[in-house]
Amino acid sequence: MRNKGFAVTMIALIVLGAFSVGQAAEVTRLKFSNFFPVNYKWSVVSQQFCDEIKKQTNGRVEITHYPGGTLTSAPKMFNGVVQGISDLGLTTIIYNKGRFPFAEAQDIPQGFPSGWVGSHVVSDTYAKFRPKEWNDVHVLSLFACGPWMFHSLKKPLRTLEDMRGMKMRTAGRQAETLKALGGIPVPLEQADVYEALRRGVLDGVVNPAQILDGWKFGELIKYSTAARKVIGNSGVFYLVMNKQKWEKLPGDIKAIFDKVSLEFHEKYAIVSNEMDIDGVAFLKKHGGQVIHLSDAEAKRWGEATAPVVAAYKKDLISIGYKQAEVDAHLSYIKERIAFWSQKEKEMKIPTLE
User: Fold this and answer.
1) Average pLDDT, stretch 85-93?
2) What average pLDDT score do residues 128-134 get?
3) Which secondary structure element, helix H or strand E, spans residue 311, and what is its range?
4) 15 pLDDT higher than 60
């Protein structure tokens, strides 16, 4: 009897062991690539996203987060996800001009007041139009940064004349805006900008205020000119997933990803505003100054950059979009800017003045 009991116990242990191994094999392990530094607020939120997915799937999905471009650099992020180098990727469309023509509408002068508004506008736009440029991946979230400002090392930029000949780091369609204002665009990855500023290779940088603290450019920048009244853009960022990996997920896991992604879209949007506020505070702490254009000067900047909008329309038509489609797209963006700007006030979302 004792031998029989021992044999039964051993069989039970073997079965339980096999079951445990089977359970362990069911864990889906994914890689999340992100070009922001590890302590950048959007990186912190991204780690929270990974943790929340693990929590809500009861450990069935584990995501390893690779911030700081350690897995793929910002310009290579999208292809890295498509090719499976990473399973998830977070970066901005500006590094691949022409790859996301529909989304680039937020990178031309539009009058965006904040990243929170821009985040909701791009989400609405994607839901309404479903542009084919995202077909190679599964989109988890589209959000946006605050309106880009003109940050200079030494020279205050108060007029169009002040902008002429300024060598400033920028990318994507924002480079066309800078050229229209008389500046000279210099394409660099964000990680290389601080040193270029420190050495005086650049006169400044065109970016949202968040970079003043997040990338510590505010230690060097002395003047930041806000021009969002007329030409404020709101560059698009994306969190996407490898399409094949997504399709292999069970239905209940996909539902959890959808739920968590929706929740975190709002977190990324809120943090976008927070980082701009932090950036301006960091600039002032280090002796920097924010310059606001007069109404008359803002109008001049708007007139100078109007050809950028016309060129964008022409580019979309040249790749197959119809004039009516382009006009409808830009009209919808304007309507959503107005809608979400009002919501931002009603909900008392903190934002830059």
Assistant:
1) 98
2) 97
3) helix 295-318
4) no
Rounded to a whole number of angstroms, the distance between the first and last alpha carbons of the chain is: 83
pLDDT at 353: 80
Across residues 240-262, what is the average pLDDT? Answer: 98
The mean pLDDT of 172-187, rounded to a whole number, is 96
Rounded to whole angstroms, how far apart are CA atoms 279 and 76?
27
Whole-angstrom distance, CA of residue 316 vs CA of residue 268: 29
- Which amino acid type is present at position 126? Y
Do 122 and 106 form a contact (C-beta atoms < 8 A)? yes
Q: What are phi and psi of 80, to 5 degrees?
A: -60, -35
Question: What is the reported pLDDT for 229?
Answer: 77
Give 114's Cβ-side CA count (13 Å radius).
27
User: SS3 of 207, please?
Assistant: strand
* Dihedral of alpha carbons 342, 345, 347, 350, sign: positive
Contact 152, 159 (CB under 8 A): no
Phi then psi dihedrals of residue 136, to 5 deg: -80, -5
Domains, the chain, with CATH or none: 149-234+282-346 (3.40.190.170)
Instruction: Say yes or no to pLDDT of 23 above 70.
Output: no
The number of CA neighbours under 13 Å toward the Cβ of 284 is 8
Q: For the chain, what is the radius of gyration of the CA atoms?
A: 23
Q: Is the dihedral of CA 67, 70, 75, 79 positive or negative?
A: negative
